[in-house]
Specification:
By secondary structure, this protein is an all-alpha fold. It has one domain. The longest helix is centred in the middle third of the chain and has 134 residues.
């Protein structure tokens, strides 16, 4: 029984040694374990802080780049719209020029055709006049060659009229 009592008993000197050992272990751990761990943790915290600040900087730059991209995109869209409007206006203007030129050419051809018709009409009238003159000369020569009776006169007029009808 005495063994059991010794095991449970409190020896002050052992207790002081245990507290001393505990204090020494605590101080050693504090110096060699906690300070390096605190330094590593502080270094990691600093690195994480740098990462966060660089991430925030990158995010700010990305937002600025996005805004610049959107501004360029809207500018490009406006420029494309302006190019399309300009091209449409030029095409319309060119179309109007082509139509105007076609109308001028048509008017010129019409005037030329009318002038040709007028010239051909004058030519035809002159030919008819020449034919009539020739017929009149023929009649006059026949009249001069012979004495005309009323019956012959009527026959000559009928012949003249039929020749004029044939000539026209």
């Amino acid at each position: 029984m005495s063994d059991t009592l010794d095991f449970v008993s409190l020896v002050p000197w052992t207790m002081v040694m245990q507290w001393g050992n505990l204090l020494i272990i605590f101080l050693l751990m504090k110096k060699f374990l906690f300070k390096p761990i605190k330094a590593v943790l502080a270094k990691r915290e600093e690195e994480i802080g740098k990462m966060y600040s660089s991430a925030e900087t990158a995010e700010t730059e990305a937002k600025a780049m996005k805004e610049e991209y959107e501004a360029r995109l809207s500018s490009a869209k406006e420029e494309a719209g302006e190019i399309v409007r300009t091209a449409t206006q030029k095409a319309q203007q060119r179309g109007d020029e082509i139509v105007g030129e076609a109308q001028r050419q048509a008017a010129f051809l019409k005037e030329k055709a009318q002038a040709d018709i007028a010239q051909e009409k004058k030519k035809a009238i002159n030919e008819v006049k020449n034919d009539i003159s020739g017929i009149a000369v023929d009649i006059a020569s026949k009249v001069v060659e012979r004495e005309i009776s009323a019956k012959d006169h009527e026959a000559l007029i009928e012949e003249f009229i039929s020749n004029v009808g044939d000539a026209s």
